[in-house]
Q: What sequence folds into this?
């Protein structure tokens, strides 16, 4: 059926929802405006509900029956003259045109049941066509479509599939007729993009397959609201910007959608260097990986690297060719103790999308307002209710915090059915094998390290618990000694007390996963799925322990004991009632049908969790997971007579005596040429350059913390010695004499492996000769080296050769020995934060 373009009487729905979400975010407590209204197009829609007639087949018969090509019914030359013809919207509920949920109206009644009974027609087929000219096509860069459907939908243009919603079961059909979808309630609305390359001058065919999810579904619905071209001269429409956690605290990832097919990137600069949205020339650029999203746009992921602690950054995404997004900011936190927010199922769309979004925005606004220095957000999964619904993703991405706080997400059972999850989120170190149930659904276990904690996420929709266990074993074997705590997270709670607690798949996971958590010395497991708050007793495998002890205050695990916490809804979109039966693993359970979130504070010796009611910020539960004493590090007993005291008659060493040159006693190594450096080892972070003091501070990758490396500064390589960093990987060095203004490269290397790590830094002026160095004048000149700048800012003599002197692991000035004399007989144990595993 050929249609004539006409002015649309209905605005694009996604724009209407965006406006509603904008109002929600502007009025929610603690939130700021985060949703940009959809760009208005002046182009005339090619298809609309009111102007477009559709040929349709409602008999449950395969339209391509007898053809060797199952998609022959989507081709231009297919004969649909025997089909019915009408304008939309189309639908039925209980065989009638009334009572459709969500306020939707049925203009054309569909035959809901197969002849002679009340078994639903599995699949309906629709076709329409439009005539286009070559000039029209040349002037478009894309077309934006807006559709409503219940239960599943697949759209084809000239025989090519352009989008599918809730269609994962379609591939299982023998032919075109079958059931698909999730039967989630009211009809869903979505937008998607069509590439003009799929169109041609002349007649073009748009075909739609509409599916019932089961034989007893109560309703069916379809409305193609609009199909609107976007001018080739229009700037890119960039949306769905989201800040993701990185592989460690020096990284973040940014994900976004764009209707442009051009290459795009993320730009990063110090916030202080961005003026009125203008990025400085020295802003860093990070190219994106990209692909076609499930809605026909292009998804992009870019990883930001080289971040330093306690710094404010600004970023934007896009390109010079097609335009940039607005500018967003985030801050990195200081090293050491840190906090994060743990949230349960937001599941936007499980209730009413706008109301769900309002609750979610309020939770994030209050949580970030109360804890402004939090480091990231950990989501237990089910970000949306319908895996492919972009309007629900609009709701989840509505809070401004999704652009300023990095998120670590889990894949919920409501997220998994579409690749949209993998396109919206860019988690680090995602496995290509573990946690991937099939190629058609989102998947992948992943891990990251933040400060001194190893985080491991399972895609628990994959029922291969042995595969998850093997993944965790491998990650812990390779990275466990880099962390003091291990936290595992996944969606399907194994220790909850509401609707899902007795599901067969949960019972199986409960039997299989906890023994592995205990085996691997996991400290804490964070989960969701059951829309109720539950804290377990400490669990030894599947056995609750210490059940006769008070549940308030501090819990201290022994041996293989693990704590499990299940989060309630963070948006209020859905709750489940607590079951009447007793669950012996439950120490604390709460269901008050109000949104919650948990603030988690991590130190070297404890993980403190406080769960709040969003509405009034009162406390639901609080508990501290305390680390037991480390048996490998017994405390020093100051009364132990076998510990010899310091001889108080021993005179202190003259602090002006130059210490021994660490470079002496072995041959100076040869510098690795800059031409041999690779991006794989571009991992050194220069955190500060103090030109006035002549010092530089840098952090090596966690795996190299404490390792002895040979250090060189280039352009002309200057050897700096082979001192290791401290236990946190931090080095403080003194700049060598005469280092010129400009960009320099600092390289850590070994004879055996070559360059292990490197990074760059800039000087705005040449470094001056320092006191105590040749040509500098003043006391202290001569051979040997001195220490670098101390934490208090004092400066010792520099190396005679102009090399940088390290403070990260140099011996303390021996004057400290004199102080120990005054403390003879008292062993003062100063324990630096240590790694959990040697």
A:
């Amino acid at each position: 059926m050929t249609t004539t373009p006409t002015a649309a009487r209905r605005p694009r729905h996604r724009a209407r929802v965006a406006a509603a979400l904008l109002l929600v975010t502007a009025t929610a407590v603690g939130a700021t405006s985060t949703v940009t209204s959809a760009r208005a197009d002046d182009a005339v829609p090619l298809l609309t509900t009111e102007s477009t007639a559709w040929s349709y087949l409602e008999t449950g018969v395969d339209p391509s029956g007898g053809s060797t090509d199952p998609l022959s019914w989507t081709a231009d030359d297919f004969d649909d003259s025997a089909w019915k013809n009408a304008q939309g919207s189309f639908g039925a509920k209980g065989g009638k045109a009334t009572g459709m949920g969500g306020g939707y109206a049925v203009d054309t009644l569909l035959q809901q049941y197969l002849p002679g009974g009340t078994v639903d027609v599995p699949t309906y087929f629709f076709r329409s066509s439009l005539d286009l000219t070559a000039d029209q096509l040349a002037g478009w860069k894309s077309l934006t479509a807006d559709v409503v459907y219940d239960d599943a939908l697949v759209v084809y243009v000239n025989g090519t599939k352009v989008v599918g919603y809730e269609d994962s079961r379609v591939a299982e059909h023998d032919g075109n007729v079958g059931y698909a979808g999730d039967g989630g309630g009211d009809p869903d609305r979505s937008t998607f993009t069509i590439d003009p390359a799929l169109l041609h001058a002349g007649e073009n065919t748009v075909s739609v397959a509409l599916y019932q999810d089961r034989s007893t579904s109560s309703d069916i619905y379809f409305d193609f609201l609009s199909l609107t071209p976007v001018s080739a001269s229009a700037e890119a429409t960039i949306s769905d910007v989201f800040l993701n956690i990185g592989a460690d605290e020096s990284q973040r990832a940014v994900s976004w959608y764009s209707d442009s097919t051009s290459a795009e990137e993320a730009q990063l600069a110090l916030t202080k260097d961005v003026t009125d949205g203008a990025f400085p020339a020295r802003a860093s650029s990070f190219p994106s990986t990209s692909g076609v999203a499930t809605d026909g746009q292009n998804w992009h992921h870019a990883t930001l690297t080289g971040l330093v602690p306690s710094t404010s950054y600004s970023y934007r995404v896009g390109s010079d060719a097609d335009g940039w997004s607005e500018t967003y900011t985030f801050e990195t936190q200081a090293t050491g103790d840190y906090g994060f927010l743990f949230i349960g199922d937001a599941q936007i769309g499980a209730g009413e999308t706008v109301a769900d979004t309002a609750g979610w925005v309020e939770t994030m606004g209050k949580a970030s307002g109360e804890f402004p220095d939090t480091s990231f957000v950990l989501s237990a999964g089910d970000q949306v209710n319908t895996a492919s619904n972009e309007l629900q993703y609009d709701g989840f991405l509505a809070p401004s915090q999704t652009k300023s706080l990095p998120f670590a997400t889990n894949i919920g059972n409501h997220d998994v059915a579409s690749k949209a999850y993998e396109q919206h989120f860019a988690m680090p170190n995602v496995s290509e094998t573990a946690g991937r149930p099939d190629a058609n659904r989102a998947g992948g276990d992943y891990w990251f390290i933040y400060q001194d904690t190893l985080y491991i996420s399972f895609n628990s929709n994959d029922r291969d618990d042995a595969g998850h266990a093997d993944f965790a074993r491998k990650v812990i074997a390779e990275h466990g000694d880099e962390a003091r705590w291990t936290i595992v997270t996944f969606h399907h709670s194994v220790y909850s007390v509401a609707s899902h607690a007795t599901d067969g798949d949960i019972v199986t996971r409960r039997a299989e996963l906890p023994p592995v958590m205990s085996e691997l010395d996991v400290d804490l497991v964070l989960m969701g799925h059951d829309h109720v708050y539950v804290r377990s007793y400490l669990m030894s495998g599947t056995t609750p322990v210490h059940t006769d002890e008070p549940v308030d205050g501090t819990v201290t695990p022994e041996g293989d004991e693990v704590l499990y916490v299940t989060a309630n809804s963070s948006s209020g979109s859905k709750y489940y009632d607590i079951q009447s039966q007793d669950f012996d693993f439950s120490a604390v359970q709460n269901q008050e049908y109000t949104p919650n979130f948990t603030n988690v504070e991590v130190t070297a010796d404890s993980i403190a969790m406080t769960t709040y009611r969003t509405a009034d910020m009162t406390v639901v539960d609080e508990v501290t997971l305390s680390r037991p004493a480390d048996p490998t590090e017994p405390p020093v007993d100051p009364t132990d007579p076998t510990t010899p005291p310091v001889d108080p008659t021993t005179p202190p060493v003259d602090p002006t005596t130059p210490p021994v040159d660490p470079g002496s006693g072995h041959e100076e190594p040869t510098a690795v040429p800059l031409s041999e450096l690779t991006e794989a080892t571009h991992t050194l972070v220069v955190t500060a350059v103090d030109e006035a003091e002549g010092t530089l501070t840098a952090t090596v990758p966690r795996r190299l913390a404490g390792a002895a490396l040979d250090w060189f500064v280039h352009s002309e390589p200057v050897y700096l010695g082979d001192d290791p960093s401290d236990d946190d990987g931090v080095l403080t060095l003194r700049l060598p004499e005469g280092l010129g203004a400009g960009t320099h490269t600092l390289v850590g290397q070994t004879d055996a492996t070559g360059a292990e790590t490197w990074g760059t830094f800039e000087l705005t002026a040449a470094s001056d000769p320092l006191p105590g160095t040749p040509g500098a004048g003043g006391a202290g000149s001569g051979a040997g080296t001195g220490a670098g700048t101390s934490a208090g800012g004092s400066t010792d003599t520099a190396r005679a050769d102009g090399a940088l002197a390290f403070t990260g692991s140099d011996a303390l000035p021996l004057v400290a020995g004199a102080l120990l004399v005054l403390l003879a007989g008292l062993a003062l144990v100063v324990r630096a934060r240590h790694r959990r595993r040697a």
In short: The radius of gyration is 31 Å.
